[in-house]
Amino acid sequence: MSKSISKAGSLFQQGKGLSKLLSLRKCPWLIAVAMAAWAGIGFAAEHAVAWADPATQDQVVQLLQTVIQDHWNGGEAKSLGVTNGAGSATNIEAAFRKASKLMPYRLDLRFGIASALMMQAIQTNGPQLKLKVRDALREYREIESLDTNGFAAPMLYVAYTRAIGDTNASDAALKELLALHPRGTSEYLQRLDSVDRILQITPQERPQNLMPKDNHHAIIVLGAGLETNGLAKAKLIGRLEQCLRVARMYRRAPIILTGGNQKAGVTEAYVMSLWCRQKGISRKRLILEDRARDTVENALFSSAILQRLGVTHVTLVTSSSHVRRGLADLEQACLQRGLHLEYATLAARKGETKNLDEEQERVGIYRDVMRLSGLWSFPGLQR
Length: 383
Hints:
CATH architecture of the largest domain: Alpha Horseshoe
Order of helices and strands: HHHHHHHHHHEHEEEHEHEHEH
Number of strands: 7
Structural class: alpha/beta
Low-confidence stretches: 1-50, 75-86
Largest sheet: 5 strands, parallel
Number of domains: 2
Distance between the termini: 31 Å
CATH topology of the largest domain: Serine Threonine Protein Phosphatase 5, Tetratricopeptide repeat
Radius of gyration: 21 Å
Number of helices: 15
Strand content: 5-15%
């Protein structure tokens, strides 16, 4: 049984799940098929004891199918006016806990519990944030005890203890992990060091006249949601006004407008493009990235465009409270494509509603970076 568990964890951590099902949300009829397939992930076929009876497997599929549909459709987050609201995260945690009780040897389900707790953590701050993070850390420790040669759980433990400032726990776990997985651990430490560097950046509200005056420089504007009638929110208008300033300074730079969240049948990218054209920016300069649904996807999809364009310098435009997260995500996504770019940022304060909690921001960015690297465990829930 223990051998089966260890192999299950290894299969999951090698990414042989369904975490790259990019199109399922557009094909609801595939969800049941996907979840049925996922129900078989992480099993050792030669160990019959690792298989649950069909009724149990079907129950797990139904549990997770429900939360996936709710998540893709907005679920409770719609009524809260936010993406991935706390209610939604709580429902996801409950579903994974029920599924894990039914199939306790499924390590992917345990990862799902921890991921739901981290989702809840970054939606709060102060003692409640630390409480949720520590709950997640306990899950990672338990996974590690079941898969003693695994990498994902101890690496996530190292990252999140570091994120909340628990250096003693982080350093001790890091020492053990370096002994088992020196190369992989060192690569992740470089990622986290990069995040810590970016967290020291002060958002700039004036465009910098330091970029190339040619098409090797690109401007990226991150989406900020739309009103229910499909019009741009004040926060998005603030970003676009800053985009206009830098676009007039660099008249040959292509402009990537990224955001795929829809309201009233239009995406953020499309609405941004209309605004830019009304302000006199040529359609030829505008590149619409209209699939991204969050900051991580903004970075992933935009990095592919940057690679295609052969860009060497980037100006990232977003809100003041979003600059560090947007830059950290974009830099990591580009590095994974072998792109070593020069970056400038331009911040907009319009539409800001509250001061950003530093610890909440740090934990959130750490979570983004781990997800960008592939250490994410919501097959079908996150792309």
